Structures are given as C-alpha cells and as structure tokens.
Amino acid sequence: xxxxxxxxxxxxxxxxxxxxxxxxxxxxxxxxxxxxxxxxxxxxxxxxxxxxxxxxxxxxxxxxxxxxxxxxxxxxxxxxxxxxxxxxxxxxxxxxxxxxxxxxxxxxxxxxxxxxxxxxxxxxxxxxxxxxxxxxxxxxxxxxxxxxxxxxxxxxxxxxxxxxxxxxxxxxxxxxxxxxxxxxxxxxxxxxxxxxxxxxxxxxxxxxxxxxxxxxxxxxxxxxxxxxxxxxxxxxxxxxxxxxxxx
Length: 247
Description:
CATH superfamily: monomeric porin ompg
Helix content: under 10%
CATH class: Mainly Beta
Distance between the termini: 43 Å
Number of domains: 1
CATH topology: Porin
Order of helices and strands: HEEEEEEEHEEEEEEE
Low-confidence stretches: 1-20
Structural class: mainly beta
CATH architecture: Beta Barrel
Radius of gyration: 18 Å
C-alpha cells in the first residue's frame, strides 16, 4: 500500500513539477553549483533504521565553496551514532572531499551535465570495525543531468563507487520538485544503489521539501523508505532534517 501511494505521489510530482531541486535533503544530486566566491553550508541530522540497525549522523556538516562559475568544492564530515547490538557507539564517520564541474550548461537543445568526482575516507582504522565507517578509501565517480521540458525540470544522476575493500558499487537516481508556495518547494526522488560483491541492491523512495526563511537560509527535510531490497537488513526508514545557510 505504501509503495503504491508513494509511486502515485511521485508520478504526480513529475507531471506537475516546475523545478527540479536535487541535492540536500535528497540523495540524488544535480548539475547546479554554488556561485563563484560564495559558500553554502548544510547542517543536518540524518538517519537510517532497519529491523536491527540504527545509524544517525548528528551532525552531518556539508560545506560547499564556489570556486569558479562552473565548479564547486565540497567537504562533508559526519559524526555517527551506531546501534546494532549492545551499547550504542559513536565517532567520526567517513569524510568526503569532492569537486563538481558543470561542463555543459542547459540550452534549448542541450541538457545540463556535470561530473562530481570525490574521495571518501576515514583516518581511524578502528572506525570500520566498530561499524561507524566504511573500510578503505572510496573513489566516487558520478554524473548529474538536468533538463527542462515543457515547463517540467527533471534531474538525475548515476555513478560508480570504487573501493578495494568492498568491491565496486553503483547508484542512480531521479528527482523532481515543485514550488507549492513562494517559499516552499516540495521534493520527491527514487534512488537505487548496490555493491557488486554483495546482495545489497536497494531502491529508496523519499519525499521532502525546502522552506526558505530568507534568501540565504532554508529549512530542509526528507522522509523515505526502502521500496525494494535484496537484503532485509538494508534501509527500511530514512530521514533528513537540517538547515541551509548561504553567503
């Protein structure tokens, strides 16, 4: 019943969307970059819960700097609370460093395209053993796309994750948004991910929004659930609550 309801809401959003709004609080990203010499800071609390595992990032710090009109630098660091069995543990999760380059702007006949290579790593060797970080260093190689068609702007991304410890992974997503009021934008996405060496393919659906307090600040949120998974211990419930500060 929930899957049917979510799909109906998602298709309705696609049909009436006037603006795609990927990026936080969604998993799916878009080709948009922070203006040159400006900064964007996303401070959030995010989490996932399965039948037996709970992970909460509190806080998740996501800092972005506009290097040129078409590029931005991102640094992201989470503090993770992990509970599986026994007492809850916490510590610094995988940090990530990325550089987004929008090499093609959207025109009447072309879609906007960007690439966003990045590294995910953790300096604490015990973090992966304690379950608060992925083992090894990952190279993330994604592409983002965006195009407005008939007043509807649709965004998508796809990519691979190369990690010598866990093996190669992959992901893709689509996202749409609609301005429901001058200050509030409704959001929806479908996100698919997996690791080739594991039976971990999963499809996640999320619905959320952005409420702009002022031109340079907004409240962002998303709630979601696993719509399909080969592993019953994968994400069943997801949430994201935070603020965006720009300057």
